[in-house]
Amino acid sequence: MSTATLSSPPPSPDRAPRRAGRLFALTGAVVGVVYGYDTGSISGALVFLSQEFHLTEAEKGLVNSILVFGSIVGALIGGKVADALGRRVAMLIVAGSYTVFVALSALAPNVIVLDAVRFLLGVAIGISIVAAPLYIAESAPARTRGACVAAYQVATVAGIVVTYFVNWGLSGGGHWRWMLGLSAIPAALVLVPLFRLPDTPRWYVLKGRTDKAVEVMAMTDPDADPRAETDAVREALDRERGGAVRTLVHKPYARAAFFVVGLGFFCQITGINAVTYYSPQIFEEMGFTGDGQNFLLPSFVQLASLAATILAILVIDRLGRRVVLLSGIATMVAMLATLTAVFAFGDLRGAMTWVGFAAILLFTAAFNFGFGSLIWVYAGEAFPARLRSTGASAMLTADLVANLLIAQFFPSLMAWAGAAWTFAGLGLLAVGALVFTAVMAPETKGRHLEEIQAFWRNGGHWPTSSS
Fold first, then answer.
1. Closest CA to 183 of 128, 220, 130
2. Which range, 188-197, 225-234, 279-288, 342-351, has the best average confidence (pLDDT)?
3. How many CB atoms lie within 10 A of CB 237?
4. Cα–Cα distance, 98 to 154 (Å, whole number)
5. Cα 74 from Cα 248, distance rounded (Å)
6. Does residue 401 have a pLDDT over 60?
7. 181 and 254 both lie in a single domain
8. Among 25-39, 137-151, 395-409, which is the least confidently predicted range?
9. What is the C-alpha to C-alpha distance for residues 180 and 167, in angstroms, rounded to an integer?
10. What DSSP state is assigned to residue 110?
11. Inside any domain, residue 414
12. CATH code where residue 135 lies
């Protein structure tokens, strides 16, 4: 018999490119899961390490805020690292840093070492916030780019969900070191495909390696003309030059910058990460007893958040951005008012505890339905290509600064002012977010990017006629 008879049928010509495209998306999604896990893992670990290290409320806040401070540093340098070394190398740095620093945090002998390691982990997280979506968006074929970037956001929420179930499973023995350290395993595994994958076509064009860009473009998108797509990337890069930060504070972009930065700040200052970081303590304050309840209940909260994120992706282009965002924030306002009433007037030993649980669940789901799903959409639509990354960086900085304030001061506020006043304050901030969004946010459903940018250049009004 001939060898031809024994050999397997030849693969279809586009099987390898499609497989490569899926590998890019899968690699980015795994990084998203690890990022989500590392963000949420402290929620359970903090209960037990606080007891072991005898932490004050301020020291508990610092364990969280030091990570966020590191994230700010990482986000500020992430773009430069990704441009100088490459998106793939930046992702390798992120995955390697995750592996090392989460392992070291699990071995920390005292809170000083833990804080130092969590700062370095925060730097890695900040770089990943910039590099991972960039790597996915620039590698995925145009027809699946939106789904791939959305999948990264869903993977991040899924990582937080995994965190809470792991925390629940380990809470019986108070194994906080395992809670923190387990994500070193998937972080190490993601290094394997990253060593095999190329960088993005856009980065190769940025570095003048046009032939390599064409090669990678053909690898990732078999339906496109790789040479024409590479030329389009080069033209886009030429248009993006001159995107200085100072341009954002002058007309005609100042209004768009004010909206995007304000949206980033309100996204975090309304308290979503108070729930992510401190939910076991909140449920204990609410009247739930035992680690079983206080660690399992947050798992169901995050499952609802995952469902809300997927729902938002399904309805955003039907209902419109503004409707989804405003309904999410309005629900957050209502749930914060409910939590204020539960803590101020409720019987925290009876049915009102479950009302409080439902309010926390709906608050978190509403955040992911509105803010969580739309903040990057608005940031990407508000500016022309040359200012898009600059505007997104400004928004991310405002987001992380607000996150830092929540992480540091929420436990101290709960101890000093009490839960009712703390949630009332968050409720007032959410009302401010609702008013700000109602006044500033345009409905951009179905409009081209050029139309949306004309809205901002026209002082927040749609032009009467399109050219």
1. 128
2. 188-197
3. 14
4. 20
5. 22
6. yes
7. no
8. 137-151
9. 9
10. S
11. yes
12. 1.20.1250.20
CA distance 346 to 460: 44
Same domain membership, residue 262 and residue 401 = yes
**Which range of residues forms the domain containing residue 365?**
247-461
Q: Which residue has the tokens 């250049």?
A: 457
For residue 252, cis peptide bond before it (omega within 30 degrees of 0): yes
How far is C-alpha 70 from the geometric centre of its chain's CA atoms?
Answer: 15
For the chain, the maximum distance between any two Cα atoms, rounded to a whole number of angstroms, is: 86
Contact 213, 205 (CB under 8 A): yes
Look at residue 235 and tell me if it is in a domain: no
C-alpha torsion 242→76→198→38, nearest 10:
-150
Tokens encoding 266: 């309100």
User: How far does Cα 298 stand from its chain's mean position?
Assistant: 18
The answer to whether 240 touches 388, Cβ cutoff 8 Å, is yes
SS3 assignment, position 243: coil
Inter-residue contact 425 to 432 (CB < 8 Å) = no
Burial classification of residue 247, based on how many CB atoms lie within 10 Å of its CB (0-12 exposed, 13-18 middle, 19 or more buried): middle
Q: Is 382 a domain residue?
A: yes
Residue 75 counted as domain residue: yes
Helix residue spans in 172-225 (DSSP H): 176-181, 184-189, 191-196, 201-206, 210-220
